[in-house]
Structures are given as C-alpha cells and as structure tokens.
Amino acid sequence: MPELPEVETVVRSVAPHALGRTILDVELFSIRVTRGGLRKTAAALRGLVIRDIRRRGKQIFFDLDRGVLYIHLGMTGKLLWDGLPGKHTRAAFHLDTGTLLYDDVRQFGRVEFFPEMPDSLERVGPDALQVGFEEFYARLKKHSGLIKPLLLNQTFICGIGNIYADEALFAARIHPRASVRRISEKRAKELHDSILAILHAAIEHRGSSISDYVDTAGQRGGFQVLHCVYGRAGESCTRCGALIRRIVLGQRSTHYCPRCQRP
Fold this sequence. Notes:
Number of helices: 6
Radius of gyration: 19 Å
Shape: elongated
Strand content: 15-25%
Order of helices and strands: HEHEEEEEEEHHHHEE
Largest sheet: 4 strands, antiparallel
Number of domains: 2
CATH architecture of the largest domain: Orthogonal Bundle
Structural class: alpha+beta
CATH class of the largest domain: Mainly Alpha
Distance between the termini: 28 Å
C-alpha cells in the first residue's frame, strides 16, 4: 500500500498539471471505487476548478471551487497523467490541459466527491510529518499494547504503514514487540526523530516501489534500495551483520534485527 512518502510524491507530481485547471469531463467505471454513484459523481465534478491539492496521511484531497474530490490509493491505486487507459482504469478526469487517470487493480481505493468534507474523513490522527514531539509523546502515553501495531493505527498518527514503521523502529533500535507503556520519554524522542528522518529521506527518493507504486509520470521510486530491514529477511543487518528476521505481528509482516532491536 502506498504510504505517506509515496502519496506525497504523487501529490507533488500531479500538482503542476492539475492546479488551477478545470475539470471538463469525468468518466467513472467502478462502483467499488466510486461509492457515491457513477453518473451523479461525474455530473457533480464537471466544470469545477481545482483550487488546491493536499495530502493528509495517505489521503489525497483535491479542493475544488465547490466541494472536494477525495482519492485514496488503497493497495494498488495509481494516478497517471496523460497515460493510456486500460482494463484497470477506474476513473478518467479530462482537464483543460490533459487527462488524469486513476488505475487500480484490486479496487481497494476510493475516488469520491463530497460537497462538504464528511466527518468520517477527519477521524484520523495528526499527520506523521506534522506532529511535534510533545503531542506525539502525549498521544503515546494514552495507549498500551505493542509499538508496531500502534504506529500502523491511523487514529494515533496517520501516514505510516508497514514499510516505514519497520524502518523507523530499526533506526530507533526499538523492537517491534516493545510495550508502549515501557517506552521512556528518551526512547520516544528517538523514535519520533527516526520517523521524521525516514519519511523525509523516503520523500527525497520519491518513495519505495515494492510492487505497484509509481508516480504520476509512471516512474518508480528509489528508496527501496535503502531499506535496512523491510523485505530483507535472511540478509545481513547493515549495522551489525546479524540476519534480519521476519515475523507476523498483527497480521502484518514485520522485519527487524534481533541484535540491534532487543526486546
């Protein structure tokens, strides 16, 4: 699933093409992706101007002169500028400068129009790049359980998924099964710093392309070659040489170094 760095890269790559442009026509093809009704949604979008494009966590919002176009890439969603429509194209937005396609193999994503922002889209925590340490630590102290599942909880902070949770925990030398209640303020600060550093580095390298992710131009990201633990089970730790392990935690694959990240 595209996480914060991938979604941020998509927003940055689509903005030069779409900001200030008019939506001339819309074609929608999937009732699974567009739940508000295909004809109704297309009719509501025609003629509107894109005033802003922004990201919160893994969500994308196109602020229009009336209402908002909401896009969530789900597991396999892609936004492609002037690409060729195919069998996995679920939406086509024809602007006055070109066409923005939404492709989605598994159809777990969303393309929906809202006249006003619904409360359901606001029920996420602060963006992982925007939350300061004091708020991060205060929110941390309200929870119990294990740290890795908490980082994946979008109501705690939003934007972090499996890749960057593993990488941030490795950078902070925290075991993914560490008890949240036992994380000191000092270690929480190290984790917060690691989250910011990892996310900024991933954005600089245009995200991680593990399987489906590409930016709006169809280009793959480059951060996957810098992963220290994610997807590297059985390989040597770049820090200490121990073999990276993979476990399943909260039904998610989790990668860590048993020597650097002791329980």
